[in-house]
Design a protein that fits this description.
Helix content: 25-40%
Radius of gyration: 22 Å
Largest sheet: 4 strands, antiparallel
Order of helices and strands: HEHHHHEEEHHHHH
Strand content: under 5%
Number of strands: 4
Number of helices: 10
Shape: globular
């Protein structure tokens, strides 16, 4: 009997030690975001049909340190007109696209000028975007802490989503406006959402066709979603806004306007990678140029151009 008691005590002691070791380790794994903690594709759902209006809130901030919190007051810009392209054919875009990446520091054309340069087509492979493609919004963005004062003064205030058209026409318009390649936009939109503006990812923190994460774009009150100055709900309800804001940030990176990433000027694939990771990987990483990224890296989708085979 005494031997059984001693054996039971030894077994219980061993179990207690194992649990004491394993529980903290498991907790540490849950806390650690790992590669891509800025933007992780962990959840994908369909956006709700109604969106609550922006309103002040006292929501407590999540535990995050990247990038630093912005405290500047928001600037409001109201578009006076919504540009629309002329009527065109019903064909997919040309295989090489229509707009090329402009060098860092290039003068950028206006949104109205770019609306006139869109190659119009009624081709629409994503009719679930129809409402969001024609929803006007207003810029109430707070300052972004990850971009410098020049970006906030000159680029942030240009974001208006003031265009209506098909999904591809929106890509063209925004690419022209920010001196970007429209084929790059198409490829990144495949990687992010397969061209669905209704996409919600990263456990309900990233929205839209290019997955703008409200926690950091910009970070308002430590990551408040519904506070004045947030990118939400514009990022969810307007395709043009979603693409406009994303390319404004990518152009800021490409022009070397980051406050914390380092020397980003002219590094296209590094900038595209940073949209996913929030950190700096010169020349890009798996999301941007990898060969086995889930859903295809941006480079692989750029090379394969799957949209050319989609029905419209």
């Amino acid at each position: 009997m005494r031997r059984r008691v001693r054996t039971a005590i030894v077994v219980m002691t061993a179990v207690t030690v194992v649990l004491a070791i394993s529980i903290p380790v498991a907790s540490a794994h849950r806390r650690y975001g790992g590669y891509g903690s800025w933007r992780r594709h962990t959840t994908t759902t369909v956006a709700p049909t109604t969106v609550a209006p922006v309103r002040p809130t006292t929501t407590s901030a999540p535990t995050t340190t990247q990038p630093p919190t912005t405290t500047q007051a928001p600037t409001t810009t109201t578009p006076t007109t919504i540009a629309q392209p002329p009527s065109g054919n019903s064909s997919p875009p040309a295989a090489g696209g229509y707009f090329s990446l402009l060098p860092p520091g290039s003068a950028l054309p206006s949104g109205a000028a770019c609306a006139a340069r869109v190659h119009a087509s009624s081709w629409e492979p994503r009719h679930d975007n129809d409402v969001a493609n024609r929803t006007p919004v207003t810029n109430t963005l707070a300052n972004f802490s990850q971009w410098n004062s020049v970006w906030n003064a000159n680029y942030r205030t240009r974001i208006d989503g003031a265009f209506q058209g098909t999904t591809d026409e929106i890509f063209q318009w925004a690419a022209c406006k920010w001196g970007w390649s429209d084929d790059l936009v198409r490829a990144e939109a495949v990687t992010e959402s397969n061209w669905h503006q209704s996409q919600v990812g990263d456990n309900g923190t990233s929205y839209g066709i290019l997955q703008i994460k409200y926690l950091y774009h910009p970070q308002v009150n430590g990551g408040c979603k519904a506070c004045a100055g947030s990118s939400w709900p514009n990022s969810q309800i307007s395709t043009a806004w979603n693409v406009d804001e994303t390319l404004a940030e990518l152009r800021g990176c490409y022009d070397g306007m980051s406050t914390y990433l380092g020397n980003t000027r002219g590094d296209l694939w590094g900038c595209i990678q940073s949209w996913y990771s929030g950190s700096w990987t010169p020349g890009g990483g798996p999301y941007a140029v990898g060969s086995s990224w889930g859903g295809g890296s941006v480079l692989s989708n750029l090379n394969n151009k799957p949209w050319l085979h989609w029905a419209g």
